[in-house]
Amino acid sequence: MEQKITLRVDGKERTLTVDTRTTLLDALRERLGVTSAKKGCDHGQCGACTVMLDGRRVTSCLVLAVAGDGAEVVTAAGLADGDDLHPVQKSFVAEDAFQCGYCTPGQIVSAVAMLREAKEGWPSVVSDDLDADRVVLDRAEIAERMSGNLCRCAAYVNIVTAIEKVTRP
Hints:
Elements: E1 2-9, E2 12-19, H1 24-31, E3 50-53, E4 56-59, E5 72-74, H2 87-94, H3 104-119, H4 139-145, H5 156-167
GO molecular function: 2 iron, 2 sulfur cluster binding; metal ion binding; oxidoreductase activity, acting on the aldehyde or oxo group of donors
Organism: Nonomuraea maritima
Keywords: 2Fe-2S, Iron, Iron-sulfur, Metal-binding, Oxidoreductase
């Protein structure tokens, strides 16, 4: 069965007809040509396909495209303001927080969304104070919050450093 859907991807409204079993990742990559989100494991375990769906990070290989009808989808490609990279993107470059780069778009989107979650006061498993109004993003907190994004090259130390540097004034 097919259904017509509309997605706002990286600021542009896109309308397409998809099989109701099509994942958001496949709709982005195969139907819309948006290749920033990567297909890694295709089981929601690696985070390479992470995008923001209405401001929340999701593994797009596990979300049906029809469930996103009318939603705002932001990929790593949509974070920059023209040629001006997002602060997290700049920090990843400055801190050499990637090696092969395959997981990098998902890592960056996840980091941007994670920083928003922390700013809104969402605690994590390692948060010292679950009732705190403000989450302190130390290295352990950042690592825990980014644990859903895997890097085969093991650039974790630099990834955490890049995110940590963005949190400093």
